[in-house]
Design goal:
mainly alpha, two-stranded antiparallel sheet, elongated
Length: about 210
């Protein structure tokens, strides 16, 4: 029986070479086909031109990057409409609250431009959409039962009534990065996404 001799040093060199090739390929993909040496040489020239200062590569932010927007999940909403899952009032409400959905948290807030947005309670939401409190509360509770909204306890409002922060299911409307959905939202709507109809939505983040 012939014993196979393994040269671990050579195997390690091959593995390292393979890793370097993968890193180089990733670098070229991120820098539009330019290899590491070409980028390093360009940085040296720029550094020399600026008196030896350290140079970093960056891209200028688009002026549009400050524009706030919420994305309606079109296919999901279309599916919910076809299933008659939402009442006309609920559809209107979801449209009315879009201007008040905070980025990433997907919470209905008083001012989306504030550095630390404050959640709007039910009374405040009613004022934001120019409606009475009772019908606003009714439609919110209905949407909570359907898994479209989530109410989180946020203290006490007038008349010692509990105050709630209201969040929107990101599978319906989302103000944020769809590739990096807020972890808190995943927890809030985990059970909701197991509900009949919602579990069959065509596009899901989690």
């Amino acid at each position: 029986m012939t014993k196979k001799i393994i040269n671990f040093g050579q195997a390690e060199q091959k593995a390292r070479k393979r890793d370097l090739e993968i890193e180089q390929k990733q670098f070229e993909e991120e820098h539009h086909g330019m290899d590491q040496d070409a980028v390093d040489e360009a940085l040296k020239v720029l550094s020399k031109a600026t008196g030896g200062k350290e140079i970093y590569i960056g891209t200028k932010k688009s002026p549009q990057s400050k524009v706030r927007f919420a994305q309606s999940m079109q296919e999901n909403l279309g599916y919910l409409y076809r299933q008659k899952y939402l009442t006309d009032r609920e559809k209107i409400f979801l449209t009315e609250i879009i201007p008040y959905i905070a980025f990433s948290s997907n919470c209905i807030v008083l001012d989306i431009k504030a550095k630390n947005p404050v959640p709007a309670n039910i009374t405040e939401i009613a004022k934001l959409i120019d409606a009475s409190r009772q019908p606003t509360s009714t439609v919110i509770n209905s949407l909570v039962k359907k898994g479209i909204l989530f109410k989180g306890d946020s203290g006490v409002e007038g008349n010692n009534a509990k105050a709630y922060a209201v969040f929107i299911n990101p599978h319906v409307v989302y103000a944020g990065d769809k590739d990096n959905v807020n972890e808190a939202l995943k927890v809030m709507f985990y059970k909701a996404m197991k509900m009949p109809i919602l579990k069959d939505l065509p596009n899901k983040f989690f």
